[in-house]
Amino acid sequence: MTELLSVQNLSVGFGRGKAIKPIVDGVTFTLDAGETLAIVGESGSGKSVTALSINRLIDYSGGRITTGRIDLSLADGKKLDLATLDTGRMERIRGSEIGMIFQEPMTSLNPVLT
Question: What is the domain-level CATH number for residue 81?
Fold first, then answer.
C-alpha cells in the first residue's frame, strides 16, 4: 500500500523555554491509502493535541512540536515534513492536501450551517 501519512516520534509541549510542559511524547504511527485510523484514549491523553499538531494548528494554541516528523505524501508523490514546514506553505496545504473534522459533529458535519 501507499503510505499517506507517517508520524514518527512526535512530541508536543506547551509553554516557553525551560518551562515547556510536555503533553504528547513519542507518538508514532503510519496511515496507508485506503486505511482508516482511530486515535483512542482517555480524556486528556493527547488525542486532540496530536491531531492539531498534524495539521500544525497547535501553533495557534500556544503549543509547539518539540521533536519528531510528520511526513505527508502529496498528490504529486512528493513527501513533506509538516513538522518543519514554514507557515505560508502549511496554509496552502491545509484544505487541499490535508484537513480535519473537529470534535463537535453537529457543527462540523451539518450541511445547513455555513
Answer: 3.40.50.300
**Rg from Cα positions in the chain:** 15
Is 85 within a domain?
A: yes
- The answer to whether the beta carbons of residues 90 and 82 sit under 8 Å apart is yes
Alpha-carbon span 83 to 106, nearest angstrom: 30
pLDDT digits (tens, 9 = 90+) for 49-75: 999 999 999 988 899 999 999 999 998
| Paired strand residues for 67 | 11
- Strand ranges, E, within 15-96: 21-32, 63-73, 79-81
- CA-nearest of 80, 76, 1 to 35 is 1
Residue where the block lists cell 498528490: 75
- Please name every residue paired with 57 in a beta bridge, in sequence order, or none if there are none: none
Q: Assign 104 to helix, strand or coil.
A: coil
